[in-house]
Amino acid sequence: MPMASKDIKAMILAAFPDAIVEIEDLAGDGDHYAASVLTSDFAGMNRVKQHQAVYAALKGKMGGELHALQLTTGVPG
Fold this sequence. Notes:
alpha+beta; three-stranded mixed β-sheet; 2 helices
């Protein structure tokens, strides 16, 4: 079953409350998303660690309910 974009955003915000999160459904199928996550929590982390932190926030949904997620991460400003 596909995952709703609002659920993805809610899970990311639960882990990173100050984040600026934008979600885009790339294929219109609820299975392929792009997410932009900007948070000060990523300060000092390399890109791989930032992506791992977002995947951890999704609590195992990647590869199951959430088939594909193109990530753009960083620190605001």
